[in-house]
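Tutorial, part two.
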Amino acid sequence: MKEVVCFDRLKGQETERACKRYSNNAHIRRAGTLEENLHSLLIVEGDMHNSRLLSKAILISQKKPNKRGRLTYKLSSQMNELLGVSGFIERSIPVRKVEGERHLKTLMNCLSQPKRTCRRPAPGAVSDLV
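Running the prediction step on this input gives:
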């Protein structure tokens, strides 16, 4: 990771500089430079030499109708149970977070599995990512 920019911590000219630097970011293009539109934005910039694509993907969502009946992405029931996060995740505000030691260990276990499966670690098991 090269840099993490938390827009809620930036003020005035810092916000303007970050908006110019990341002007190709879709969230910035949509919001413009108004600070109140960017308050919850977090940009993580990868390092050109040390970043890489992940070798696998884990399905975390399922399409469900929202309040208007439009199909949109919602965290799957399995992920809700395993990670303790629920709700719609497409353009999610507030941001969905995995919290709590048990849920974080489960997530780390999911990411370290050789297959595309995700299970809660056995009691007492320690992930090599901890």
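The CA atoms of residues 1 and 51 lie 7 Å apart. In part three we will examine how such features are distributed along the chain.
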